[in-house]
Amino acid sequence: MSSDTISSSKRVKPGSDYAARVATKLYGIDAAAVAVDGYADPSFILSTDDEPSYVLKITDRENEQLARLQNAMLAHLSGRSLPVAVPLLVADAQGRGLSFSTDEAGNECCLQLLTYLPGEFAADLPAARPALLRSIGRGLGTLNRALIGFSHPGAARLHQWHVQKAPEVCEAAPLARELRPMVERSLEGFERRVVPALARLRRSVIHGDANDHNLLVSARPGRGLQASGLIDFGDAAEAPTVFEVAIAMAYFMMRQPRPVLAAQELLAAYHSEMPLLPEEIELLYDLVCARLCMTISHAARARHSAPDNAYLLRSEKGAIELLRELHETEHLFFTASMRDACRLSAWPQGEKLSDWLSQQSPSPLLPSLHEGAPRILDFTPGSEDLGGGIAPKSLREFEGLVESLLRSSGAALGIGRYAEIRGLYQSEVFAQEDSDEARTVHLGVDLFAPAGTPVSAPLEGTVHSFSDNARPLDYGPTIILEHRIDGAPGSFFTLYGHLERRSIMGLEVGQVITAGEVFAWIGEPEVNGGWPAHLHFQITGDMLGKRGDFPGVARHSEIAVWKALCPNPARFVGLADKDLDANCGMSPVELARRRDLCLSPSLSLAFANPIKVVRGRGAYLFTEQGRKILDLVNNVAHVGHAHPRVVAAIAQQEAQLNTNTRYL
Questions:
Q1: Phi/psi of residue 292, each to 5°?
Q2: Contact (CB, 8 A) for 206 and 236
Q3: Which of 147, 344, 494, 648 could serve as a FRET partner for 36 with CA atoms 20 to 30 Å apart?
Q4: Cα(23)–Cα(196) distance, rounded to whole angstroms?
Q5: C-alpha distances in angstroms, 185 versus 13, 285, 324, 327?
Q6: CB neighbours (10 Å) of residue 651?
Q7: Which of 391, 514, 505, 522 has the alpha carbon at shortest distance from 450?
Q8: Which H or E run contains 130?
Q9: Which of 304, 316, 315 shows the shortest CA–CA distance to 10?
Q10: What are phi and psi of 431, to 5 degrees?
């Protein structure tokens, strides 16, 4: 996307014959010219000896300053060690980097000859995988770092694709009626958060259009597909530096099954080369949404002015779909995810909330069961509490198992842990349409007690919302209280799930519930989603726009964000944080990175997406997600994993001697 105006695309453009002639006349190159699809300024690939060798760009003479800006940027970058190549400028026969001519229609124009960069357009490939996203982020971060201190008179411009012009561009666009509210919602966030910050942001000259049609990809030995080239500097301008990565994120989140995860990969690599400031990260959500709105708006204009030009509409569908998904994600969750990708505290307010909570003396949640030691239950895959890896076949069996564990320990109260990866969540209810990673990490605390057990408020609060989430394996009747506090974050929320229906009868939003007041009762399996009778209690610092419901189980890959939003509720059940936090550990991705640092490359992994195994039993291995895998690979086919006689023999030997091979 280049040129300052959309209208220039209406002018009669020079043809391939003209391009071939001026290549010979001005540059002494005998080449065949083929036109390249473009937004405004015509470009041609020049092939010599049947191989692409150069790109000839033709710009209206009125945009000479823009052409000189591009040349200056390329000259500034030439000779620098960049992981993503940029074209080299080729001088004409008179040694000029910018040539002038009159095209077939009599228009004066500027000509630039650039080296041809090999590779495939990222847009022509399936959605970018993590390694490719990281290479894109590193490439852009290195580019922006190289451009620090570069300046040019032609960079001081606000063209039609400059993100700063998003409100103006979108307001004037002939948007479809169903798209207007979505765009206006995005621009409201832009006006509220981005516009007041513009004067404070770091600025530099940026490429301004690192989309999937401008980034080239090539296979690299041992690394797979990597970003190899960046073309088309036609949208270069001075701007807040953070615009660069936000623009790239907007395009490379499209077509992704998990856009936020894709953005994290790209941003983490960018940040490693060009560290962002916290304020810049805070604006990424609005900047990405603004760029998507501009893509939608320009496509709407193009549909009226050039309906047959598919190039102008190429990103519209993906932009609409991604913008809708981002609106469901919410600004806070997206920002927390990006902070986590940059190795910052995901939600700084969460630390303040945890500090405040640690100073409170909450009333007992279940006052009738306050006395006596509870039984801490272990529901992780492979847990002995779950039969050594064999998860219950039904909720009825699970209920009997919990009752048996409580009975054998003499405890009246069972506690299911916080941040625990559970193999129990095998139903499609916990599956994700956009990923093969299910929700398996528990975000609250479960208090297993008889149905009808009264529930009291640990702190004074007001009813924020309530609902009967009556689907199988859901919460059933649910109440959410809001608690006001002095200082940041101003308030927090407590959720009470799996209640009796009478708990929400007669309840009113805004109703005051005093500390210690009984306001709910634990429900039977018939009304609480089918689960054994228990209270799910959870704290969250923000409701993410939800009412009457809130996620109680999360994906492991997102756990850092969810733990920041939903702090450990140990103090509310009379335990220390360490006793309740199951510490779900490193994700497979994190563990693989750690493994690469600590172990020799000769110790290879067996799969492209390595499996994190936490237990073996019999003929099966169990993943941290509770997935049961028949093992036909390891040397256990004869007796199986954890055979009692083998375990006993190993234990006996370890008790007697464990040394190295230097001795007989």
A1: -65, -40
A2: yes
A3: 147
A4: 48
A5: 38, 13, 11, 9
A6: 10
A7: 522
A8: helix 130-146
A9: 304
A10: -75, 160
Strands 414-416 and 375-377, bridge-based pairing = parallel
Residues 6+ apart with CB under 8 A from 461: 481, 482, 483, 484, 494, 512, 513
Residue 269 sits at the vertex; the CA angle it makes with 267 and 273, to the nearest 5 degrees, is 110
Q: What is the pTM of this model?
A: 0.87
- Of 543, 547, 555, the closest CA to residue 478 belongs to 547
Q: Which pLDDT tens digit goes with each residue over 552-589?
A: 999 888 999 999 999 999 999 989 888 898 876 676 77
Any idea of the CA torsion for 497, 503, 504, 510, to the nearest 10 degrees? -90
198 and 164 Cβ atoms separated by less than 8 Å: yes
**Two tokens at 320?**
């609409």
pLDDT tens digit string along 477-490?
Answer: 999 999 999 876 78
**Cβ contact 580:571 at 8 Å:** no
Tell me the sheet residues that pair with 203.
240
Structure tokens at 189: 């966030």
What DSSP character marks residue 364?
P
pLDDT at 465: 98
| CA 297 – CA 573 distance, rounded (Å) | 53
Q: Between 346 and 641, name the one with better pLDDT.
A: 346
**Residues pairing with 361 in the sheet:** none
Half-sphere exposure in the Cβ direction for 435 (13 Å, CA): 16
Overall size of the chain counted in residues: 664
DSSP H helix total and E strand total for the chain? 17, 27
Q: Which two tokens stand for residue 348?
A: 């700084």
The verdict on whether omega for the bond into residue 567 sits within 30 degrees of 0, i.e. cis, is no
Q: Which of 352, 355, 336 is nearest to 344 (CA)?
A: 336
HSE-up of residue 8 (Cα within 13 Å, Cβ side): 21
What is the structure's pLDDT at 4?
Answer: 45
Residues in CB range of 255: below 8 A, 6 or more apart: 126, 127, 318
Residue 634, Cα to own-chain centre: how many angstroms? 35
Considering only CA atoms, which of 526, 530, 472, 534 is closest in space to residue 497?
534
What distance lies between CA 144 and its chain's CA centroid?
22
Task: Supply φ then ψ for residue 618, to 5 degrees.
Answer: 65, -130
Helix residue ranges, H only, 147-229: 166-172, 180-189
Q: Who contacts 408 (Cβ-Cβ below 8 Å, separation ≥6)?
A: none
Beta strand 491-497 with 613-617 is: unpaired
**Alpha-carbon span 492 to 359, nearest angstrom:** 15
Residue 444 burial class via C-beta count within 10 angstroms: exposed 0-12, middle 13-18, buried 19 and up: buried
SS (H, E, C) 437-480: CCCCEECCEEEECCCCCEEECCCCEEEEEEEEECCCCCCEEEEE
- Measured at the CA of 359, the angle between CA 353 and CA 365, to 5 degrees, comes to 85
**Cβ(295)–Cβ(186) under 8 Å?**
no
Contacts of residue 446, defined as CB under 8 A and 6 or more positions apart, other chains included, come to 377, 414, 415, 416, 534, 535, 536, 537
Q: What's residue 425's pLDDT?
A: 75
For helices 259-273 and 331-341, give the axis angle rounded to 10 degrees.
40
